[in-house]
């Protein structure tokens, strides 16, 4: 479950490595919710992000349970477009159904 003050790994090439959740409307447990994050490298810079992997197990409709090793995100600008041009690492297939097809298409592997 991802809540306030949770640290996330950034898996795109936007230049940041770790972000911290500073604001969200509700506790986030799905792999494709958007939240507002602050970049740890530059103080005061707040960016939006799409969470692409969570440690919390997610049950798929076909009965499979998917759990990742870490919490990861892709950073967005104010227009909800990706800051980076590449995505490194595994992403959840649920993102495509939620409208984040560009993130899925740039990822090397989809689970």
What does this protein look like?
The chain is mainly beta and 111 residues long. It has a single domain (7-101), classed as Ribosomal protein L14/L23 (Ribosomal Protein L14, Beta Barrel), CATH 2.40.150.20. It has 2 helices and 9 strands. The chain has helices at 94-97, 101-106; strands at residues 7-10, 18-23, 34-39, 46-53, 58-59, 65-66, 72-76, 90-91, 109-110. The strands form 3 sheets. The chain has a 5-stranded mixed beta barrel with strand order 1-2-3-4-7. It has a two-stranded antiparallel sheet with strand order 5-6. A two-stranded parallel sheet has the order 8-9. Strand 1 and strand 2 (18-23) form a beta hairpin. The two termini are 19 Å apart. The relative contact order is 0.23. InterPro entries: Ribosomal_uL14, Ribosomal_uL14_CS, Ribosomal_uL14_sf. Belongs to the universal ribosomal protein uL14 family. This is Ribosomal protein L14. Keywords: Ribonucleoprotein, Ribosomal protein. It holds the Pfam family Ribosomal_L14.
List its salient traits.
5-stranded mixed β-barrel; single chain; two-stranded antiparallel ribbon; Ribosomal Protein L14; mainly beta; about 110 residues; 9 strands; globular
Please sum up the structure shown.
One of its GO terms (cellular component) is mitochondrial large ribosomal subunit. This protein is mostly beta strands.
Provide the fold topology.
Elements: E1 7-10, E2 18-23, E3 34-39, E4 46-53, E5 58-59, E6 65-66, E7 72-76, E8 90-91, H1 94-97, H2 101-106, E9 109-110
Parallel strand pairs: 1-7, 8-9
Antiparallel strand pairs: 1-2, 2-3, 3-4, 4-7, 5-6
GO molecular function: large ribosomal subunit rRNA binding; structural constituent of ribosome
Family: Belongs to the universal ribosomal protein uL14 family.
Organism: Agaricus bisporus var. burnettii
């Amino acid at each position: 479950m991802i809540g306030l003050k949770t640290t996330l790994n950034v898996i795109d090439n936007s230049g940041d490595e770790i972000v911290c959740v500073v604001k969200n409307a509700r506790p986030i447990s799905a792999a494709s919710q958007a939240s507002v994050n602050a970049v740890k490298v530059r103080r005061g810079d707040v960016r939006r992000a799409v969470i692409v992997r969570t440690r919390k197990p997610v049950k798929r409709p076909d009965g499979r349970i998917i759990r990742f090793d870490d919490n990861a995100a892709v950073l967005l600008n104010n227009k909800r477009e990706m800051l980076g041009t590449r995505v490194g690492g595994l992403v959840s297939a649920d993102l495509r159904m939620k409208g984040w097809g560009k993130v899925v298409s740039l990822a090397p592997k989809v689970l």
